[in-house]
Fold this protein.
Amino acid sequence: MDEIRSRIAALQKKEQNLLLEREHESRESARRALWSVLVASVFGVIILTGSTTVIWRTIRQRETAEAALRRAEAMQRAILDGTNHAIISTDAEGRLRTINATGLALLGYSADDLAGQSLCVLHDDQELRARAEELNRSMSIPVNAGFEALSAKPSRGIAEERNWTYVRRDGSRLPVRVAMTALRDAVGAVSGYVVIVSDMSERRAVERMKDEFISVVSHELRTPLTSIKGALGLLAAGALHKAPERAGRMLRIASENTNRLMRLVNDILDFERLQSGQLSFDKTVVGAAELMHQAADSVRALAETSGVDLEVRPVRECVHADEGRMVQSFTNLLANAIKFSPAGGVVEFAAEVTGSSIVFRVSDRGRGIPAEKLDAIFERFQQVDASDSRDKGGTGLGLAITRSIVQQHGGEVWANSEVERGSSFFIRLPVAAAVVGAVEG
Amino acid sequence: MPKRILLIDDESDIREVASASLEIVGDFEVLTADSASAGLVVASREQPDLILLDLMMPEIDGCEALEDLKRNAATRHIPVIFLTAKALKMDEASVRRAGAVGALLKPFDPMLLPGQIRALMGWPMESHDEASA
């Protein structure tokens, strides 16, 4: 029995050991499985985190690159739109790809209007035809009157910059200077063109004004010269030896027109020096009264000859001025007022302090200036009547010179007038700090 | 009978000098007017053989005056020569287009002016001696 018990106990122990062993194995197995799961999870998290980081970084890099690209594009667009030139790009066949804001504003088109259109829509047809014919002759190759007339040279690597007339959307014409360059791909084939367009309308207007000025100056110089040459030519040839009275008149004509020519040349030189800033001003603090009396004295003989009374009413204040040039300005106004006053008339030369300025006034009771001519009289050669240069001895530059001198003293000049009642011319100058002691009578 | 020339110019000194040249050197009879509008009246009334017309005049300039002369049946047959102080000498084509026979430039030589007019008009040249005789 004992043996049986002993065996049973041994068996039980063995069974118990076996159970313990199995339980241990089971625990071990579970632990390993748990570790595996844990390790796998950790690896998974790591891989996931890594992948996510890589993806995120890639996205960030792309976003950064895209933002940089957008910034570069915005900068490029700002540069293109900020320039004074129209900048156009086309494909190889001349169809518009892009045009900057300046170009759209200059031509009156919207970007949609021009998308895919030929560059030729901006050109004058006649000019294109003429250019094509010119290229046919000079390059000895057939050039059609379309885009080829524009691209024939740039497509062959010859830089071209020339004047054209562009046609705006509303049909109006715009003089332009166009520089066209071909773009080439990796194998050297033309892939498109860049066209830079400069608006020439302002420059043309300046050139026209210059031509007009030269034309007017030439006319003004030739007119007295014609009288001088004609009069002296007849006298020198002895053609008037039997007509002494006529010969005497010819001498007077020659003399008077020589003076007219001299005044004109002096005024033209003065005006041009003033305009170009070549005339220097020697400014000092000077009494307004002194300037007014100097100017009045210089025209007193003219006033007496014309039977015109000159009244001067100065102020005590001073101005900071070039004495000679300011007297010249006042003299111009006074001489005009006297010349256009009827005999027995009065010319007033008065000054008044208004705030920090002195306003000088020259008034006459002459024929007056029509309202439509009042603004223009300070422009060069803009006399109220073209015969004034002859009858009144003016050059047509006196008021333009006066305005320029006054402006260079920080002042302004203007006029009021009523036809048949008279005119008043005003000069406003800043008051200088010092005050003179007394007003001379 | 001397040829009669109407001189239209707003400059009195030029009228006087040109008149002396045309009368004394050229033996022409000279009529004058100081504006285009006055010239149109004189031309219509006096029927001169030629009008010497200044281009740059106030109110109505020479080109407009020529148009008026050509529109008027009483004056359209009278030949016109421009006498101009403009900077650029007018080319022959533009003078012809305007309807003038020619253009002479100021300043002119008073001893040559009559001969230049005769040459443009196809009038026979006269020596000064013949003219004075």
Observations:
- Chain B touches chain A at residues 10-14, 16-18, 20-21, 24-25, 56-58, 85-88, 106-111 (CB under 8 Å).
- Confidence is low (pLDDT under 50) at residues 128-133 of chain B.
- The longest strand of chain B covers residues 4-8.
- Chain B is about 40% helix and 20% strand.
